[in-house]
Amino acid sequence: MPLALTVNGEVRLSNAGPMTPLLDILREEFQLTGAKPVCREGFCGACMVLRDGRPILSCLTPAGLVEGSDICTIEGLSPGGTLTPLQDALESHDAVQCGMCFPGMVITLTHALRRTHDLTDAEVRQALVGNICRCTGYERIVAAALAIAAAHGPEAARDG
Amino acid sequence: MSIFSPLVLHQPASISEAVALLAAGGRDCAPLAGGTWIMRAPIRHEAPPPVFVSLSKISALSAIAISEERVELGAAVTHAALAEAVAGYPDLQVLAEAAGRSANPAIRATATIGGNLCTTSFPAADLLPALLSLDAEVDLARSQGRERLSLEVFLERRAALVPGWLLTRVVVPREAGRSAHARLPLRKAGDYPVAIVSVAIRLCERDRVTKACVAIGAVETVARRWRSLEAVLLGEPVDPERAGAAAERLLYEITGREGIEAPGWYRVHVLPSLVRRAMAGIAESLSSGNSRPCRSP
Description:
The complex is a heterodimer. By secondary structure, chain A is an alpha+beta fold. Chain A has helices at residues 22-29, 85-92, 102-115, 121-127, 139-159; strands spanning 3-7, 10-14, 48-51, 54-57, 70-72. In chain A, strand 1 (3-7) and strand 2 form a beta hairpin. Chain B is built from 11 helices and 12 strands. Chain B is α+β, with helices and mostly antiparallel strands. Chain B has a 5-stranded antiparallel β-sheet with strand order 4-5-8-6-7. In chain B, strands 9-10-11-12 form a 4-stranded antiparallel β-sheet, with helices on both faces. The interface between A and B is medium-sized, with 33 and 28 residues. Chain B: This is FAD binding domain-containing protein.
């Protein structure tokens, strides 16, 4: 029986086995390549997607365990090309970087901003412990997250 | 390489169903909790068993019950859920720190207490020394019945257990007054610890230690109690410097595990500092607010 996965609001079927990493189905079958296979060990965070609003490591998640959950990938965060306030802030802070770690960072911060309205610098950094950048750094990303927390408050947090 | 994994995944809704599947599967079958270790089998060049039994649909395994006497934790309780549940209890501080600082947030939200205890090839598990210091016990279920073992005995036997058993619950007696967990990752966070020291103590009215449990993790291949150090702490006040010096004298008992992130000698060398830090954490907990051992936040 094929797996039925709800991805970015759409039910999609996969013929992959239930122990197949969700990441591989997203990328190879569904052509959603925003989540990246980098370390495949749960250390780097480049494969992160939201499961029912919470960040998960799709490289370590058997697809069979997420049937019935809402999966949101980086592609699903801004339907119709409308950026979320967080994405806007990241762009205006010139924090986009190379694109390898970045989708995972956006996923983590989307969740962190939804959960807490007034994030501190330390909280942003703690949230990003599992998102590793190997080329540029974190300062502008942290600044963008803090700006969105400060500027938009609960409103921005709700919209992510 | 095909992305289509051929592995079978059962998702039973009860413990009895799960142990029946495990018994039927024998050596070709293993329980799957959070999956954060099992899903990395290809990276370790290991062939996984062909059949897995997921625990995620068994609600009893995610239960947490905290009473004055004990804490009962379902085997599929995640590190994040555990850290949140035990936060603020001075006697359970070791558990809050072990569960709340291991790995990174997404792993903590997925990796379970049962997985941490059953992964025989993972030497740097944070919950092992923490639970050893609290004299935890584990409940095992199999189709023929149940049994409760001390965590220490379980760790001795776990590699040799016959297929078909399932670790269902961890029971922590609340006998400690204060506890602390000191770990050394190479980065500030997000790494495996090079060495771990967990300490739980009980004090008498005159603030002398009447019971001390010290456990070390990540240093040797399996976490264990450090009983010779415990004996030195007994009958004395909480004194981080003295405890560290005592640890220094007892280091000859420990042989460090070689590993890619640190050589064995280094893991041993940092232990006295971690003992000092853990005891300082306990001293701080005693001096802040209630100086008597207490059981509620």
